[in-house]
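Quarterly update, task 2.4: NAP-bound model.
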Amino acid sequence: MRNRAVVLRHFPAGVPGEGDFEIVDALMPDIAPGQIGVRTRFISLDPYVRGVISGRHLGHRLGLGEVIVGGTVGEVMASNDARFAIGDWVLGSGGWQSFWAESSTTLRRLDLKLAPPSSALGVLGMPGLTAYAGLIYLGLPKIGDTVVVSAAAGPVGATVGQLAKRAGCRAIGIVGSTEKARLITEQFGFDAAINYKTESLSTALAAACPRKVDVYFDNVGGATLEAVLQQLNLRARVVLCGLMTQYNQAERPSGPNLGPVIGARAELKGLVVYDHFDKLTHWTALAAELINNGTLRYQEDLSHGIESAPSAFVRLMRGENVGKALVALS
Ligand SMILES: NC(=O)c1ccc[n+]([C@@H]2O[C@H](COP(=O)([O-])OP(=O)(O)OC[C@H]3O[C@@H](n4cnc5c(N)ncnc54)[C@H](OP(=O)(O)O)[C@@H]3O)[C@@H](O)[C@H]2O)c1
């Protein structure tokens, strides 16, 4: 057995390239008292990692030569805590490597009867909780509301749209390809999709939202945020979740124009999923139930082997992933 890891080779300028990462042989982790040794089966690739690399994610910065951070799911190989047995499946923060050691206090044992283990990194886990907490607790959707979400084919956006439908709302997704537009309308039950790369956002939004927008769940910022702000209903709620248009930029852009927020007496609410981890157990049980009764669907964008992690991350940061970006390790 040998450990392979992906480390940071250069700080990327703009969109990361595969050459910004390096695959190295690493030592097998020492399993200290109270720790569990885990063989990685799935690595989560998430947009926030771009922020960690550039030092913008809640003050956390990765150094050159360090293993790239990330959520991981794997099988217990060695245990220094009787509550975890060899062969248990667990969720933790192993980063981009094939083996990791972590304290038993931060690992979470997975119940494979609930859902496939990879879903703990997507719809059942952090991205799904982001959608659930952001929409339900900040977006406050009411029956008949129109809910718009950007990056709508990803794990956060797709879950927002489906939960909006479940809350009796009209769900409109903004996406960057025909394939994603088809996915969200045909598989995820959105009422309409807008492809911002081929349509005028303002015209398409006005057509898709004849009663204007009550909740906007923003995953991208920039021109998309500005266009949706122009269509807000009175007392609309805007959930500021992510800034995909900015993560690869060295400078923070000016704007957007917030004038329409005044006219609509709207509320802008910043979302940080870490504030909502007390709801994770509830969300995991609810999401598993909805998946098993067919009312919540999800898609994974799966790459294979640790060597594929850099290229898969580059695809995510270019917006080319379709579904939750994951790397599967055998
Ligand atoms: N606030 C929190 O606590 C929290 C927690 C988790 C995630 N988030 C945020 O939620 C958002 C969605 O996360 P996710 O994991 O579900 O990601 P994702 O949707 O799988 O991937 C991001 C998507 O953003 C879209 N995008 C729009 N403009 C882009 C641009 N200029 N460059 C690259 N991509 C662009 C792309 O889809 P299109 O082709 O459809 O444009 C891309 O596929 C991210 O902004 C993330 O940072 C926030």
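Highlight for this quarter: The radius of gyration is 20 Å.
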